[in-house]
Amino acid sequence: MALKTISLYAVIGNPIAHSLSPVMHNAAFKAMGMAAGFVAFQVTDAATALAGVRALGIAGLSVTLPHKQSVMDCLDEVAEDARVIGAVNTVVNRRGRLCGYNTDAPGALTALRRKVDPQGRRVLILGAGGAARALVHAVTGSGGRVALVNRGRQRARELARDFAVEVLSLAEIPAFAPEIIINTTSVGMFPEKAQTPLPEEFLQPGMVVMDIVYNPLNTSLLQAAGRRGALIIDGLEMFVAQGALQFELWTGVKAPVAIMRQAVLRALGENCSLQETSSVGN
Ligand code: ATR
User: Fold this and answer.
1) Among 102, 154, 186, which residue has the most ligand 1 atoms within 8 Å of its CB, making it the best to mutate?
2) Whose CA is nearest to atom 5 of ligand 1?
3) 186, 170, 190, 188: which is closest to 178 by C-alpha?
4) How many CB atoms lie within 10 A of CB 201?
5) 217 vs 80, 189, 214, 239, CA distance in Å?
6) Structure pTM?
7) Rounded CA separation 84/5 (Å)
8) Closest by alpha carbon to 12, among 38, 31, 36, 32?
9) What is the per-residue pLDDT across 131-190, written as a single tens digit (0 to 9) for each?
């Protein structure tokens, strides 16, 4: 009897045990009737893992912290926007050629556009790490006017220089009068759920406030934004949107987004142990 061949996909990161990417992508493969499976690998060295991808013929990867930068040196091609952002979160194995992409930036934009078009809007981005780079690229690319606030001023200045945006102190925020605020830091993530990256006084009615943290979904920042009459976008939206784009890059098939969102929501609700570790990223 001939063995059925399946395409294997994986997420690499460290830590990885509680990533929701396997739940989301396996639900999508199943819904589409595809002979494919998705597993998680805890990886300390991206280069060795990528050699394994080549050797084993793994069809595609999702890449999460801390490998989004280091994986770039191991690829045959890197898409232009991923190069500009400086991070790859998706690898496609095209007959042995490993090609890198960034779906965080367009995924964030999809999530944001469900509530507001950033074109011509004043957008305050909290943070200056890898996720902030993807968000700054996405928002400036779609015509938003970006300002940054970050704990470490030097890192914010470097990011601001790369993308020609401004850096603000907390005291300068009211004069900037942000219409959209996006948290890209890990502040507020489990177990430090009570923390917030921005004091409530800066949140105003009519603003759109988006958080990329998805554990918990209703972060302290979003709770405060709701109390102040702002529109809120939780981290589930970006996670699912970036995952849907990954699925489409790997398979060439339109992603079953509603099924993917449902699978992640169910896992967030059921799996309490998820709350023991990271919940930003893939
Ligand atoms: P990622 O690639 O997910 O963005 P990162 O590169 O480690 O991760 O960046 C984390 C971001 O969260 C940074 O902006 C960091 O601020 P610093 O640049 O000052 O380190 C921010 N961050 C993390 N913990 C924080 C905290 N307790 N208070 C304020 N900012 C914090």
Assistant:
1) 186
2) 129
3) 170
4) 11
5) 32, 9, 5, 11
6) 0.91
7) 37
8) 38
9) 999 999 999 999 999 999 999 999 999 999 999 999 999 999 999 999 999 999 999 998
